[in-house]
Design brief:
The chain is an alpha/beta fold. The chain has 3 domains: about 5-125, Alpha-Beta Complex (Conserved hypothetical protein from pyrococcus furiosus pfu- 392566-001, ParB domain); about 135-280, no CATH class; about 310-454, no CATH class. Helix content is about 45%, strand content about 5%. β6 and β7 (about 220-225) form a beta hairpin. It has helices spanning about 30-40, 45-55, 75-85, 110-125, 135-145, 160-185, 195-200, 225-240, 250-255, 310-320, 325-350, 365, 380-390, 395-400, 405-410, 420-435, 440-445, and strands at about 5, 10, 60-65, 70-75, 105-110, 210-215, 220-225, 350, 355.
């Protein structure tokens, strides 16, 4: 099989793509699919990368099957959508230059079953890396129902059973709230989407909402009162639509009392014996633990001079946490350490008399399209742009493989936990990244392709 080049007008986006078919219920018009992929499936970032390098790499060939005189894209829909959008960027509200790419590299498969098998083989272990939480859950559910065991999916997610529960909840709830619920769950522009984590947090109070989950092996949802459950789903959806800035933090702070906010939307929580689980947890105090050095390095040794005291304290706090007793806390702090150091070196490192953050290269990590300062740093963009600067490919891989998405799920999912081995592995893998970022400034700059900044 060899790479061929096909006219972009003959490449059809696939509305039945497993990644987003369940969540996307819009029209099958190409422009609607492109907009969905851009702003819900992160194809906007793909477009920015293609625009920045002014090139579509031949080794990123799309996998397609013939459909009449055209070709259906089975793998590479985001890349294809990004290129199509760059033909008319203003139409899709992209602040990018128009880019003309007439043909794209493709691998043509004549047998759809063969291609589906290849996609499964190619992506099984990296399948969820860039997917949104609900998309991951639906795919895990599909794999589980096809015979994959829960344990076999632990390489993909530390708590796959939680994904299966989420999918079970989704399939029941979407019958009630339909497209309104889908819009809340999938990622998108602004604050209107990405509410999956809120519904997951509320699993802890499921009996108050007239449902519960069965245990292993099915993790199936059991509706205790159909009418009450429907009232809960509709009220939650209506409340979140009216209050789009609501986040999981609101649930964490208010706990079961958060459900009382739904009273004005037609739902009153059921009286159960269910206790507020988070309120009974005891505060555990411990003395700082001094970690002994062994054959494996267990503490970073930054060389950079005059590192901010607060940053040093943060690193010390992270590495003084015991892996066994404070696994989740160590996972959480590892992510905070990584992002804090990354932001610090970008904001404080000078190159040719200017801070790195002030170069246009990092602009979208700190400013929106209208050049307004972002309230919060966009770490997804900051991390990617930084990794692209690293000269050594081995170092690049180390940063790419430090999976922040997995840490995010451990930190933010109420029932997703980390064990001692997880905490140890994450903190040990973080050490060379910390030392790389906190090299002496001249060595740090020498390790980056600074030509890309200009």
């Amino acid at each position: 099989m060899r790479i061929e080049y096909k006219n972009i007008n003959n490449l059809l986006l696939d509305p039945d793509n497993a990644r987003f078919a369940e969540l996307y219920s819009g029209s099958k018009k190409e422009e609607d699919l492109i907009e969905y992929l851009l702003y819900t499936e992160s194809a906007e970032e793909v477009a920015k990368n293609i625009s920045a390098r002014n090139l579509f790499y031949p080794d990123e060939a799309l996998w397609v099957v013939p459909v009449g005189k055209s070709f259906l894209v089975k793998d590479g829909n985001r890349r294809c959508a990004a290129v199509k959008a760059l033909q008319v960027p203003k139409k899709y509200d992209l602040d990018l230059s128009k880019m003309k790419i007439d043909k794209l590299p493709v691998l043509v498969y004549t047998k759809k079953n063969e291609l589906n098998r290849r996609i499964k083989e190619q992506h099984t272990h990296s399948l969820f890396r860039e997917w949104g939480r609900i998309a991951k859950a639906l795919k895990a559910f599909e794999m589980y129902n096809s015979g994959s065991s829960v344990d076999s999916m632990r390489e993909i997610d530390s708590n796959p059973s939680q994904l299966i529960k989420l999918a079970n909840f989704y399939y029941k709830a979407v019958k009630i709230a339909g497209e309104d619920l889908k819009k809340l769950l999938r990622r998108g522009k602004g604050n209107s989407g990405g509410k999956t984590i809120i519904f997951e947090r509320l699993f802890s109070y499921s009996k108050s909402c007239a449902y519960r989950f069965k245990g292993k092996p099915s993790y199936q949802i059991k509706i205790l009162d159909e009418t009450k459950f429907a009232e809960y789903v509709n009220a939650a959806v209506a409340y979140l639509k009216d209050n789009p800035r609501t986040t999981h933090i609101d649930v964490d702070n208010e706990k079961i009392k958060f459900l009382d906010k739904l009273h004005g939307y037609g739902f009153t929580r059921a009286k159960t014996d269910e206790k507020d689980k988070s309120s009974v947890s005891k505060t555990i105090k411990s003395k700082p633990i001094i970690i002994k050095r062994g054959s494996i390095k267990c503490y970073p040794t930054p060389e950079r001079k005059q590192v901010a005291p607060k940053l040093k304290h943060l690193i010390n706090e992270c590495y003084n946490l015991d892996n066994t007793n404070f696994s989740n806390a160590k996972i959480a702090l590892s992510r905070v350490v990584f992002e804090s150091i990354l932001k610090y070196v970008i904001e404080e490192t000078n190159y040719k008399g200017k801070k790195l953050r002030n170069y246009n290269y990092f602009r979208f990590a700190f400013y929106d399209k209208k050049n307004n300062s972002l309230k919060y740093t966009n770490f997804t963009i900051l991390r990617k742009k930084f990794i692209d600067l690293i000269i050594n490919t081995g170092n690049q891989k180390a940063f790419e493989q430090f999976d922040l998405e997995r840490l995010h799920q451990i930190i933010h999912n109420y029932k997703t936990g980390a064990g001692p081995n997880d905490a140890r592995t994450v903190s040990e893998n973080l050490i060379p990244l910390v030392e790389f970022m906190l090299q002496e400034e001249k060595d740090f700059l020498a390790s980056l392709d600074t030509k890309k900044l200009i």
